[in-house]
C-alpha cells in the first residue's frame, strides 16, 4: 500500500519561476530519498505558503522523510510546519486516475 504525505508551511519565497530555478538541486535530491515515488510541489505566493504532496512506498519511509524534511526546514528558519500522512484507497483513486505507480 502506498502512503501520501502532505506538507505545507509559511514561506517568504521565492515562488514561481524563481522557485523553479532556485530549487532544482533540492528537487533532484528528493528523488534519492528512500521510498519516495513522486512529489508534486505546491505554492501560493499570495498566502506565502509552500509545500508538497508526496507518494511513498511505506508509512515508515513517509514518516522518516517528514522528520528529516521538518528538521531541514527548521534549519532554514521555517516554522509551523504541518505534515500529515494518509493511507491511500488505491481502488477508488485508480477510478479517478490517481497517479499511484511505483518507480
Top keywords for this entry?
alpha+beta, 4 helices, single chain, Monooxygenase
In short:
This protein is an alpha+beta fold and 103 residues long.
Write up this protein.
- The protein has 103 residues and is of the alpha+beta class.
- The protein has one domain: Alpha-Beta Plaits (2-Layer Sandwich).
- It contains 4 helices and 4 strands.
- Strands 2-3-1-4 form a 4-stranded antiparallel β-sheet, covered by helices on one side.
Strands of the largest sheet, in order across it? 2-3-1-4
Q: Tell me about the biggest sheet?
A: 4 strands, antiparallel
Q: Helix content range of the residues, please?
A: 25-40%
The name CATH uses for the topology is: Alpha-Beta Plaits
CATH architectural type? 2-Layer Sandwich
Using the CA coordinates, give the radius of gyration: 14 Å
Mean pLDDT across the residues is: 93
Number of strands: 4
- Tally the structural domains: 1
Level-1 CATH class name: Alpha Beta
Written as H for each helix and E for each strand, in order along the chain, the element string is EHHEEHEH
Q: Whole-Å distance between the termini?
A: 14 Å
* Total of helices: 4
Structural class: alpha+beta
Low-confidence stretches: none
Q: Quick one: overall form? A: globular
Beta-strand percent range: 25-35%
Organism: Psychrobacillus soli
Protein name: Monooxygenase
GO molecular function, one term: monooxygenase activity
InterPro entries: Dimeric_a/b-barrel, YdhR
Amino acid at each position: 500500500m502506498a502512503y501520501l504525505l502532505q506538507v505545507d508551511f509559511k514561506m517568504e519565497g521565492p515562488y514561481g519561476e524563481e522557485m523553479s530555478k532556485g530549487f532544482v538541486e533540492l528537487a533532484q535530491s528528493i528523488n534519492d530519498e528512500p521510498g519516495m515515488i513522486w512529489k508534486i510541489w505546491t505554492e501560493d505566493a499570495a498566502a506565502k505558503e509552500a509545500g508538497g504532496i508526496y507518494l511513498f512506498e511505506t508509512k515508515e519511509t513517509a514518516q522518516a522523510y517528514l522528520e528529516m524534511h521538518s528538521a531541514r526546514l527548521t534549519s532554514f528558519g521555517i516554522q509551523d510546519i504541518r505534515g500529515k500522512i494518509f493511507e491511500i484507497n488505491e481502488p477508488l483513486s485508480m477510478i479517478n486516475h490517481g497517479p499511484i505507480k511505483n518507480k
